[in-house]
Design goal:
alpha/beta; TIM Barrel; three-stranded antiparallel β-sheet; 16 strands
Length: 392
């Protein structure tokens, strides 16, 4: 079993990705605002797989001649799918586009749906990287986050994955209610010991429309204040840097060469297809760079696809200014930053040198030795304000 070789593409040639959204979960987590749905009756995987095949064909017709460098099965909980369903969908991608021999093919999984036979089935289907939603490493916080697995089950899932996949990653959430820097440091040290090459470490945010938002507004959920959240962020950087997993993006840490290639397509402002309920896409078509958003409700999406309809609910040809804004928003999240020259090619204008100089003077952005513009460590926590300033 060989892991994919390091990607040959550079930061300004980010490749072509395909995102496949499986929208179903066993339960809805109270902090989650993703397009995920719980169904009491079994999902008709055969019908959905056939609809994915039709939707893939539709986007392939808009993007002929592409070579796929990464595929990501996200959700929802893709590991609820049978391996045969995954194989059908991946085979359809390969029929409609050329898939690079070293393409990274990732699948998101929850510990409750991980068992060795199923993981081997995904591996046989073509998946070569697993991304697991662990979220916390103690049972008290897992219950508070509404997770259905225990800490021991989570670590068992990581151990099982490590025997089947050369490349795997898992997610944790920090700045949880009652979280302290000392507790987070100990938890993170254990996580680094368990992770082979990659960790995604997200600060808990209260998202609109979630159960956590309702609890927070009612005063029943207290999250760390900004100073404590910053201390937890600093612990994250210190531990990961010391252990050889530096941040390559605001919330993602990896050993050099082990970065998620698919997510780099997004952050490097590459082109990607998006297939499935609620999926997004950025495609360079005959009319320009198009932004597409697809019907979120799974059964409505399915009916529209089966009827031969366009299942998009938004479709816009982006102006060059809008493309430049998106490039800033995505690229400045990366430690490598953005190429000012590529920004000019994309946006049709240069960044304001005076604004950059002010941000440099404030210690929020800097130029690398290679001339790329990036946020400093001090700038990362206020990245949205930096992007708004540069885009103005």
């Amino acid at each position: 079993m060989n892991a994919p070789a390091p990607s040959p593409v550079g930061p300004d040639a980010p490749g072509f990705g395909v995102y496949l959204h499986w929208p179903f979960c066993a339960a809805k987590c109270p902090y989650c605002d993703f397009n995920s749905h719980v169904r009491q009756a079994p999902v008709d995987e055969h019908r959905f797989a056939a609809a994915f095949e039709r939707a893939i064909a539709g986007q392939a017709a808009l993007t002929p001649g592409r070579t796929v460098t990464s595929i990501f099965l996200g959700g929802g909980t893709p590991s609820l799918m049978q391996p045969s369903t995954v194989a059908t969908i991946l085979d359809s991608v390969a029929r409609h586009w050329t898939v690079a021999p070293d393409a990274e093919i990732s699948l998101e999984a929850n510990p409750t749906s991980i068992e060795a036979g199923r993981l081997r089935g995904y591996r046989t289907a073509g998946v070569n990287r697993l991304s697991m939603g662990i979220q916390a490493m103690n049972d008290t916080d897992l219950r508070a986050l509404g997770r259905m697995h225990s800490a021991s089950e989570a670590m068992g899932a990581v151990e099982t994955a490590s025997k089947i996949f050369d490349r795997y990653s898992f997610d944790l959430i920090y700045a949880r209610p009652g979280h302290t820097p000392a507790a987070w440091k100990a938890e993170l040290e254990e996580a680094v010991n368990r992770a082979a090459e990659h960790l995604s470490l997200y600060q808990l945010t209260i998202e609109p429309g979630t159960m956590f938002e309702r609890l927070h507004r009612a005063g029943k959920l207290i999250v760390p204040d900004p100073d404590l959240a910053r201390a937890l962020y600093d612990v994250t950087q210190e531990v990961c840097d010391a252990r050889g997993l530096p941040a390559y993006e605001i919330s993602n840490h990896a050993r050099p060469g082990a970065e998620s290639r698919h997510n780099l397509v997004y952050w490097r402002y590459g082109e990607y297809a998006g297939v499935g309920p609620g999926a997004h896409a950025r495609l360079a078509t005959a009319t320009g760079r198009e932004a597409l958003v697809f019907e979120k409700h799974p059964e409505t999406w399915l009916s529209r696809i089966e009827a031969g309809e366009d299942a998009s609910i938004e479709r816009e040809v982006l102006s060059r200014e809008a493309q430049g804004d998106e490039m800033l928003l995505m690229g400045l999240r990366l430690r490598e930053g953005i190429s000012p020259e590529r920004y000019v090619e994309t946006a049709g204008r240069s960044l304001d040198e005076r604004r950059i100089a002010d941000l440099v003077g404030d210690g929020l952005v800097e130029f690398t030795d290679g001339g790329r513009l990036r946020a400093t460590i001090s700038g990362v926590p206020v990245i949205d304000a930096i992007v708004a300033d540069l885009a103005a």
